[in-house]
Structure formats: C-alpha cells, structure tokens
Automatic annotation (TrEMBL):
Residues 193-312 form the RapZ C-terminal domain. GTP binds at residues 86-89. This is RNase adapter RapZ. Residues 34-183 form the RapZ-like N-terminal domain. ATP binds at residues 39-46. Residues 1-28 are annotated as: Disordered. Keywords: ATP-binding, GTP-binding, Nucleotide-binding. Pfam families: PapZ_C (PF22740), RapZ-like_N (PF03668). One of its GO terms (molecular function) is ATP binding. Transmembrane segments: none annotated. PANTHER family: RNASE ADAPTER PROTEIN RAPZ. InterPro entries: P-loop_NTPase, RapZ-like, RapZ-like_N, RapZ_C. It comes from Roseospira navarrensis. It comes from the Bacteria.
Amino acid sequence: MTADAQQGSDHADAGGEANPDPGVEGEASGSHRLVVLTGMSGAGKSSALNALEDLGYEAVDNLPLALLDALVAGGTLDRPLAVGIDVRTRDFTVSRLLSSLTRLRERPGLDVALVFLDCDDEVLRQRFTETRRRHPLALDRPLSDGLALERTRMAPLRACADVLVDTAHATLGDLKRRLEDQLGLGTVSDGLQIAVVSFGFRHGLPREADLVFDARFLRNPHYVTDLRPLTGRDPAVGAHVEGDPDFGRFWSALVALLDVVLPRQGGEGKSYLTVAVGCTGGRHRSVLLAERLGVWLRDQGRRVSVRHRDLEAGTTAL
C-alpha cells in the first residue's frame, strides 16, 4: 500500500482521538511545535496527518490560511499541532503561506517546521488514475497539465521546506517512521536533526537528499558469490568493502568534509539535513557506509536516524 492510497479522502478517523505521546505532550522545553504539511496533490498529505496524529499531534486538514495565525495565537497549544495546507485550501497562495510562516516563526516559544511531500509525476499520475479522483488544478485540463502547473506554483515552498519527504516508495509505516525520525521523535529540536539514507542509483536519487555521496567506485560485493545475498550490515560485506585500497582515504575525506559542513548547516539555522549515500543497487556498499556514518555521527553527539531505502523496499542490487 502506498503512502497515498487514500490521498483523496478526508483526515481519517482512527477509532477515536489518538493518545498523546508522553514525549511530546507538554513540550519539556517550554516551546510548542507547529508542523505545516504541504506538497504535491496526491503525495500523501492526509496519510502524513494520520501518522502525526498517531505520534501525539493534533491534526487539522485544509485549514483556511486566514485562520492559521489565530489557531496558534497566544501560544496556547496543549499538544503539538500539525496542519495540512495545499492548493485546495481556501484563500491559498504560496506567498500568503510564506508570509504566515514568517510571522509564526517570530513568535517566542513556537517551533515551526514546514514539511513538503513530493514524488515524481509518474507516481502521482498512477495514484490519481487508481483512485479515479480529479486533480484540483486539472478540472478543465489534462492531468499532466495540472501536475505541471501545481509543480510550478509549489516550487518556492519546496525550495524553503525544512523537511522534504519523497513518498514514491513509502508504505504508511515508512511514512510514519520518516516523519518521526526527521521531526526529532516529536520533540522540539535543539540543533541539527540528521537523516542518513542509503539508496541505489539504479532506482533514482532520494528527492529529499541535501548531500549525496557516490560509493560505486568501491569494491562491489555483488560479484562475490558468497556475499551477493548478504547486505552491508553483514561483517563479511564490511570486510570486503573496507578492504578496497581507497576505502580509508575515502572515509577520512568524507568525515572531514562533514566536520566542516555540519556546523555551518546548523549555524545557518537549518534544523533538518538528509545525507544520502548511493551505490548501484542500494544493498551492499551504500548500506555499509550509511551504518558507519550513523555510528560516527552519534559519536559526535549528533541526533541522527539511518534508513536504507532500497534495502527496505526489497529491491536487488546489480
């Protein structure tokens, strides 16, 4: 089931109000959390709202922009709040939403995160075809034209999003885990939240990646019969890849670069960063490096999550 199998439905009733996560209710730091969910129609906004509600957020879909400021006025939020806003929202314009976010971020004690949900147009076309729903900007034009128009309109929001989530290969469980990881387990983050993602180039780049590193030049365990069915989590694969004569220099250069980049990213006020490591199929080399990066980042005192996109998707490496 895709993350947007029910993209056209209203916010679903999960059988009563979700119990707030004790880790988010009350916000121990004294701050309140507001997550604004937006993105391409069909990319999974309703599913993402359901996921955040399960994580203890109060969820509101298609809130008129004129009411957004009033909803959080006075900092009286009892629980973290997630609000879904897109091209269907009454009085929606990109500039108006950006202006609202600027005002809200100036409020003391309010932590605001903009999450943009996206996937490629072919997946979106398939979802609209399967659900037989009309795209909101394609009521009098072909679906492809509506998608193109929406992508152009939403580009400024995508460019300034704090978190970018590619839902093309995501199940509902995947979507919940990604939001939980990238939003810091529902807590207000003091510092940079880093997501490390392994992937296979043959399956496409992760759309949410901020930094991409290519490991295809290293020894490929796929061509060793005993190693082929294993993954980068297995010690034998690690020993094989790390035995490459250039592995040591590459690793040293990689962490030295991150030593420079990460403090600057945090210093620029960025709250979320996705580091992607790719090999051919996303099973061996990239998985090993992502795991090693996760350990190294934790040792540096960083807040980090590690995800193996194509390993978890069950794809095979070549």
